Amino acid sequence: MKNYTLIFTITLLLLCTQIFAQRIENVRFTTVGNNIEVYYTVAGLKFNQTLTTSIYASTDGGVSFQGPLRFVTGDLGPGMVNGQHMVTWEATKEIPLDNINLVFDVRAELVETPVKKDFFAALTGNQITPLGLRIGLLGKTGYYLSFQSNLSPGLTGSYTYKDNAITDYNRFAWYEFTSEHKKAAWAAFGGLTFQAGRNFFIYTGAGYGKYEVLYEIKEYSYEDDALLGTDYGRDESLSVQGPALEAGLILRTGKVLLMGGANILNFKMPGWSAGIGISF
């Protein structure tokens, strides 16, 4: 290219290729020796989307375009992802550049790769319900079922406990408290998973759960003080049961899944859960 004294009238046409949220923006160029370097930015692509790009040039300020340009190297063609890209054009091999108003148009075709769906299973738990299993399907949109409990999820009591006493004791017997008090807890959920990134998922679900604080009593006969058995008084002030909600994140590294999230029982008792699993 000659050492032009001509000052190019540079009109940068920011032609954005809109495909829903996907776009090409910030189109600009600069001369480097005998070549022209064109820069453009791709934004808004999802994790499973790429662009196949080509470039056109106009010497009349964008009224008409020639192309796609052939003597180009760099970031063109298939596989373009989000970020800034650069193309080098050997301009004089293709278009005379005297007295021109140069504009570039980067055009693109969206390529979307189908999202693979994987089944998964994970062990989950927290300080209240350490034993849990979550199974489901990961994909663009998937689903899951989960259940968490402690070691005595089905334990219950016949009586109500308050202020160190059983308030509704109705047997012809007497009782005494032992030093044992136990907790019965479980929660079951069903929900959806959403793929937010290549290896990043969000889950949200609803279900039902129970958390009960139980104080053990031994019951004795009035006649001969014989042991009749054991039972529990339920502490109403500390026990919660009802609808439950949960939400969290899943990170996939290879086949391994790492999970963490939060939940709330009957809109009164917040908690958390964590887990590790595998997809297959």
Describe this structure in words.
The structure is a single chain. This protein has 280 residues and is mostly beta strands. The protein folds into 2 domains: 90 residues, Immunoglobulin-like; 129 residues, Porin (Beta Barrel), CATH 2.40.160. It is built from no helices and 18 strands. The chain has an 8-stranded antiparallel barrel with strand order 8-9-10-13-14-16-17-18. The radius of gyration is 34 Å and the shape is rod-shaped. The N terminus is likely disordered.
Structural class: mainly beta
Total of helices: 0
Q: How many whole angstroms does the radius of gyration measure? A: 34 Å
CATH architectural group of the largest domain: Beta Barrel
Under the CATH scheme, which class of the largest domain?
Mainly Beta
CATH topology call of the largest domain: Porin
* Shape summary: rod-shaped
The spatial strand order of the largest sheet comes to 8-9-10-13-14-16-17-18
Helical content class: under 10%
Number of domains: 2
Mean pLDDT: 90
- Describe the main β-sheet briefly: 8 strands, antiparallel, barrel
Residues in β-strands, percent? over 45%
Number of beta strands: 18
Low-pLDDT segments: 1-20
Distance between the termini: 58 Å
**How do the helices and strands follow one another from N- to C-terminus?**
EEEEEEEEEEEEEEEEEE
